[in-house]
């Protein structure tokens, strides 16, 4: 299972990107320029992950050439990283520590891209399917693949953190499948609830989501999360993670998390 996780991640990323491109073309062909523009706009935040990927290449001593820069400009930088991990995992002379380091970089970058790019696209396509075009096949497929890809990004990140722990091996396939089903169900219900609320109450959904964002951000500050040292970056990190907590829980602190998860679900429900 050494190369199965990055290989599946690459396949899901390709499927999600292809479905997103089909949805953009679908709106353009049908003259729905508003949805076309919003779908294009959802691509822009993904460049944050691409820029960070370039910076990490430089930090690793690999000066990015024109070809690598072009791949990142086309938002294919993570594809390149996944492909490198698959090749390294298949090679007999590559050490496990080197593969783990490459896998960690791409898992973190993919999770960032999924939260910044895939999640807004999922919300947009889900709203189109629920409120605008219930019979829309292409937006529905794009929303479904975005949901699955986002859930898998969370699962692959959890899989990587398990490998980091001393003495921990790769979780069995059954465990990963259960994690995927849990993440998919949790994200799907949250997205559906927000979309239905937006359909009924329009812009009031931003007030509800904003209140939830504030509550989660203050809760993170109260926990004194010290994953970021600088005060300004620490506040920014808590604010960004508070926005993520509108949809799902991500454990960023070492140690047992049962109490924190219980508080999260108590507030979310």
UniProtKB/TrEMBL annotation:
Main location: membrane
GO cellular component, one term: plasma membrane
Family annotation (Pfam families): XK-related (PF09815)
Subcellular location: Cell membrane; Membrane
InterPro entries: XK-rel, XK-related_scramblase
TM spans (from-to): 33-57, 124-154, 174-196, 203-222, 234-252
Entry keywords, A to Z: Cell membrane, Membrane, Transmembrane, Transmembrane helix
Keyword Transmembrane helix on entry: yes
Topological relation to the membrane, as annotated: Multi-pass membrane protein
Family in the record: Belongs to the XK family.
Name the record gives this protein: XK-related protein
Source species: Notiomystis cincta
Gene: Xkr5
